[in-house]
Amino acid sequence: MRTIPLLATTIISFGLTSIAQAQGQKIPEYKGTKQLMEGPYSNNLDAASYFQVGVKLYGRRDFPGAERAFRKALEFDPYMAMGRYLLANTFLQQGKNQLALEQYQIAIALDPTLSQAYYNLGIAFYKEGAPNSAIAAYRQALSFNPESADIYYNLGLALESQGNQEQAIEHYQATIRLDPDYGKAYYNMGLILVEQDQIGPATTALRQAVRTQPKLEKAHYQLGLLLVEQGEKSAAEESFREAVKVDPKLAPAQYQLAVILFEKGELAEAITRFRLVTELEPENVDAYRQLGAALTANGEYAEAVTTLKLAVQLDPYHALTHYNLGVALQQQEQYEEAMAEYQQALSLSPALAEGHYNLGVVLEKSQQREEALSSLVKARELFAFAGNEEKVAEVDEYIKQLEAQEKLVDTQETPEVDSPEIPQMKSPEILEVESQETPEVQSTETEQMESEKSEPERGIRDILPH
Prior knowledge:
Elements: E1 13-14, H1 19-23, H2 34-38, H3 45-59, H4 63-76, H5 81-93, H6 97-110, H7 115-127, H8 131-144, H9 149-161, H10 165-178, H11 183-195, H12 199-212, H13 217-229, H14 233-246, H15 251-264, H16 267-280, H17 285-297, H18 301-314, H19 319-331, H20 335-348, H21 353-365, H22 369-385, H23 389-410, E2 464-465
Helix pairs in contact: 3-4, 4-5, 5-6, 6-7, 7-8, 8-9, 9-10, 10-11, 11-12, 12-13, 13-14, 14-15, 15-16, 16-17, 17-18, 17-19, 18-19, 19-20, 20-21, 21-22, 22-23
């Protein structure tokens, strides 16, 4: 079975964006009384004061300010476990993972019952590419909180990063048992099932992902790809539309939606969406190829030529791009340029029957009849070999006209010869749902056409609460 391109696995869910959640209790506000200043974490008044400032700044997501406040608090009381823990959180939020690791470990040494520190320690290890250490930390966190869906989810992600897919699935299933609306767990499980070629269960998992988390645009997109693979184009179109509704800048979904619309003949909308993809991904050669093909099919030949020339600049070795550029030029009666493009296409793909056919047509237009007949004969051979009898008959009829005209020219008569319609343009391989291999979830949004989109690596991409 062809490989389905997989978008990045979603991010680990965090429990550290809320201070109250991270501490497991409400932080008392500083009211100016000795008791409240001391709080439950330090008997040092200065430490407690700076601690409260840090809490407020953290709550406002001023992480550098919170870091400074917690550092100051720890100068007065270096043994305050919660201060170490919250300082580590500020580091993690700022991407200072090594510093976060140090502070979480100190916090745990000061207070081995600080369960949330084990959880965030696991996150920091995972972000630093140490899944074994992350797994150990998560398991310790789970011993304190065995009913935490988030811990099971992150543990599943870490196990999956080691290639332990079955264990990862078990932990995603445990996540779902604890929280049946945990859409990311369905999504990640669906991606694993795709890798295992279990398309039916994968489709079910992704349907659950979008049901429980309708704003998870990547799940809509992946579901759309699976539905295309199964020939359910209408349902796939709906999934891609949902994906771009959530995120209009999700270029792979815009691209796939445009491909389906192109196939349906809804050219105006397809062109609009292909144009958007070229704006979002200016180096996406497939988007230019498809846009050029759609413009040509819609009779917008001048813009098609400009677009396909851009595609050629990005990849000069793609035969069908040269072929389609030749078609657009031919439609504008720019026969010499069209001829050059067909010849380039045939140098790259000598068995391209349509290329030989169209080259024969433009050669005849350029009064190079002998060369035209040679190209048409070659086209006929290739169409016959492919079993395309309709094209064989079309070529035979055209050759007869040319031969008849040649005989009449020999007798000094010059009747008009009706050139056939330019053969139906062949759009750049529209596409089977095919993509690059997906090593541990490779992430390139290559889809039907092998466009090189940017599926980020599976793993962490932001700090998000579940």
